[in-house]
Hints:
The chain is of the alpha/beta class. It has one domain. It is 34% helix and 21% strand. It is built from twelve helices and eleven strands. Strands 3-2-1-5-4-6-7-8-9-10-11 form an eleven-stranded mixed β-sheet, sandwiched between helices. β9, α11 and β10 form a beta-alpha-beta unit. Residues 1-20 form the signal peptide. InterPro entries: AB_hydrolase_fold (IPR029058), DUF900_hydrolase (IPR010297), UCP033909 (IPR014586). Keywords: Signal. This is Esterase/lipase superfamily enzyme. It comes from Enterovirga rhinocerotis.
Amino acid sequence: MKRVASILLLLVLAACGARPGPEALQASGTVPGAKLVTVYVTTSRGHDPGSLGFNNDRARKLSYAEFTISIPPGHQPGQIEWQEGPADPARFFTTVSSRTLDRATFEARLAAQQKKAAVFVHGFNTNFQEAVFRLAQMAADSGIQAVPVLYSWPSAGAVSAYVADRDAVTTSRDSLAEVLTMVSARREALVLAHSMGAWLTMETLRQLRLTGKNAVLNRLKVALAAPDIDVDVFRSQLATIKRMPQTMVVMVSPDDSALAISSRIAGSRTRLGALDIRDPRVVQTAIAANVQIVDISSVQSLDFAGHNRFVEFAMMHARGGTGEGAIGVRKAGAFVFNTIGDTLSTPFNVIGKVVGGEH
């Protein structure tokens, strides 16, 4: 209990630091050598008239927008160089342009792109501008050949608002189902969902199955990062969703401190994102459900809680190869990610044990 209290205190103290406000979305230009990334946005957040972005109000319908983000020449992969003082595109992430769109224009913009879509569903305690810049960073660093699409649900953007955020994702299932149906209408869509956003995504996939949207599910490739989902709830969701044609990837870290707090709040129930994959039952369940569970504890985290390792792993995964053990191969089962060589191994190989079956 003392450990959890200490972690919670550190999270609160971290949250007291400066966080980007709507001013980060003010157009500031770019410089030679910067990389430009256009992020297409769908959101169920409210919008203040005259504001550059979206707030944490719960809107009754989706809004659409596009933001072109400039990434500075000296950018360090995995990082977001936030503005400190006046906007300086030579040193910081800046917004080059932004505009709101109607649905028809949004769909036309996507249709004009001859690429698959990559949808990012952010997690708990995330404001709008943080979500936009994080997706721009991941798109730039991964080099993935896909159109970056953000679905931003109305997170309160506060450590103290865990229950409020849980309610917010519950109200967002219909909106995300609408987005995934639209984005995948003409193309394959990758879906990366983090933390509480993973719970929202699983609930949405379940809803798509129950409403007979099988064709939509068949065009999705889903990855859950540090999913804040009760393990039994995940099993129940999978029972309804059933096996998807594309192997689902689940990134876990048993030492994720943020999920330790979530577990405590939930009565010490194990969270999916903190699974111990050395349990043979985990392997069997993963294979049966066509799920690849990857322990990414060896990846350096951007935060002290170990909750954002997916940012670095996503870059590695995007450039992964196709050979045996390659990080880019989606194969059902439980694996440990090895930072040396960027490869996957079974946990039993890692600890020197041999088990029967295919791994």
